[in-house]
Amino acid sequence: MRNRQLHTGGRSIGLLVLAIVVAGIVGSVLSYFLGGVFPAGPVRDFFFKSLDIGIPVFTISLGFAKFTFGLAFSITTFAVILVALGLYFWYKF
């Protein structure tokens, strides 16, 4: 059985995760601000309307303690484009 590894070109996986997170945050912030500048229409809806995905909030009660869990992502096309650019630059340089 072959040992399959991700070829990173000497760059760390932590830097990749950081690049994805930063690109996603910057893309979301830019989507928020630029979405207000563009006129209403299909282009604005495509690039700047967010899609909310995640796990709904649920609570586990043990009698003496309650735990609440949930996870949600708000994704825009613009943020996905910036994450793809971040990945491209991470692999290229």
TrEMBL record:
It comes from the Bacteria. Keywords: Membrane, Transmembrane, Transmembrane helix. The keyword Transmembrane helix applies. The chain crosses the membrane at residues 12-34, 71-91. This is DUF4321 domain-containing protein. It comes from candidate division WOR-3 bacterium JGI_Cruoil_03_51_56.
